[in-house]
């Protein structure tokens, strides 16, 4: 179980691989982001994306899955107070295989909550061609070892 103390500055955690399935792209878009370039091949080809692509929000959800698989579920995470940056760098397509890393940028103890630490991380997600598709900076709150025992 990872605690705050395990996420020191420059700690890097591998994420993925995660295969993007066409059916999942269509299902997510149908429910949450029904823009034509996420649902229809012809409309997608005619768009600036030049082909069917996952919603950026779906890409974020896939990144979250990769984070949970890599470290979040096996940590003392208490959630996140927010996201500072999300940049969708290029389309994510059905058949892509995503991977990347989460790197700790900052780590500090909470000034108001004993037993809690706050880490700022940057996730960089790439496709199988090593092209950057997503950058995300966010914070996560984790119990310290002492806080986890309390």
UniProtKB/TrEMBL annotation:
Signal peptide: none
Any Pfam family hit: MaoC_dehydratas
Start and end residues of each MaoC-like domain: 18-107
Protein origin, superkingdom: Bacteria
Transmembrane segments: none
PANTHER family registered for this protein in UniProt: BETA-METHYLMALYL-COA DEHYDRATASE (PTHR43664:SF1), MONOAMINE OXIDASE-RELATED (PTHR43664)
Listed name of the protein: Acyl dehydratase
Native organism taxonomy: Bacteria, Pseudomonadati, Pseudomonadota, Alphaproteobacteria, Hyphomicrobiales
């Amino acid at each position: 179980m990872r605690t705050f103390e395990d996420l020191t500055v420059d700690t890097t955690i591998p994420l993925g691989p995660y295969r993007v399935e066409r059916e999942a792209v269509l299902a997510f878009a149908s429910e949450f982001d029904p823009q034509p370039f996420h649902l229809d091949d012809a409309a997608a080809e005619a768009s600036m994306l030049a082909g069917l692509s996952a919603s950026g929000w779906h890409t974020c959800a896939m990144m979250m899955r990769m984070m949970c698989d890599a470290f979040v579920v096996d940590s003392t995470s208490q959630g996140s107070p927010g996201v500072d940056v999300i940049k969708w760098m290029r389309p994510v397509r059905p058949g892509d295989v995503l991977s990347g890393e989460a790197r700790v940028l900052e780590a500090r103890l909470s000034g108001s909550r004993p037993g809690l630490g706050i880490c700022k991380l940057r996730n960089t997600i790439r496709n199988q061609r090593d092209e950057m598709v997503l950058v995300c900076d966010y914070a996560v709150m984790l119990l310290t070892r002492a806080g986890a025992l309390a």
